[in-house]
Amino acid sequence: MATWNLEKTNHHVLICNGSSCMKKDAEDVTEAIRSEITNLDLDQVIHTSRTRCNGRCKDAPVVIVYPEGTWYKEFTPELAKTMVKEHLIEGKIMNDSVIYTYENGSFCAPESSDSISGVEKKAKVQQ
């Protein structure tokens, strides 16, 4: 296992590889993102991590970009390559694929989103 030096990293891309996302080609999305990063010689500044379920299975496969906190839905290998160029290099958010953005201290869905809201998390009652 490697221990990466992340001091030059300016983006962290989390790629869901949970079961729902894997059924919708998350492995191909993961490989497309990583290949595009390598092809553009961006390995020093963009770090990727495969995750398990991120809780947005209806939007599979899900890709999350930090530090912006942008959540993307229904990614394909083609969208993955576009995201590397447009979002990670040019700083343009791909609005048609956004589930959430991070603004004013919390995540919010864009008005144009057609994604389901999802279920509310409930606080645990302490005994």
3D structure, described in words:
By secondary structure, this protein is an alpha+beta fold. It has 3 helices and 6 strands. The chain has helices spanning 19-23, 26-39, 77-89, and strands spanning 11-16, 46-51, 63-66, 70-72, 98-103, 106-108. Helix 2 (26-39) packs across helix 3 (77-89). 28% of the residues are buried. The mean pLDDT is 91.
Summarize the biggest pleated sheet. Answer: 6 strands, mixed
Q: What structural category characterises the helix and strand content?
A: alpha+beta
Overall mean confidence score, pLDDT? 91
Order of helices and strands: EHHEEEHEE
Work out the number of β strands: 6
In percent terms, what proportion of residues is strand?
15-25%
Q: Taking strands numbered 1, 2, ... along the chain, how are they ordered across the largest sheet?
A: 2-1-3-4-5-6
SS field, number of helical segments: 3
- Separation of termini? 41 Å
Enumerate the spans where pLDDT stays under 50 for 5 or more consecutive residues: none
- Portion of residues in helices? 25-40%
Radius of gyration: 15 Å
Principal-axis shape? globular
